[in-house]
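Hi there, hope your week has been kind to you so far. Do you reckon you could talk me through the fold, stretch by stretch? I've dropped the whole record in just underneath, so have a look:
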Amino acid sequence: MTKLVHFELTSADAEMTAKFYSDILGWTAEPSPFVPDYQLLTGENGATGAVMSDRYQSQPAILWFEVPDIDLALTAIAGNGGKQAGDINTIPGQGRVVYVSDPNGTLFGLKQPQ
């Protein structure tokens, strides 16, 4: 079964926005070691999210789903009217990731763990 594994919020000031959520939710916020202007958020229960610069994506919120095979998921998405919305990237120690969109153009992400 596919599960929700991450969320991203976009902001003109990622650091300030991440601090806001950190302060109100009690989560930690720290800069990504891989992407500039990308702040990682971590909650006590293992929940993860991030705030990134809106120059990367303009949609205010993006949900990420774990899939066992990104290539198979991309085939299913294309077969149902969706699209791949970026290159497949590998995050060291975490796995493969890619942005996609549904037939309405709403972005979401797929993550295939290592």
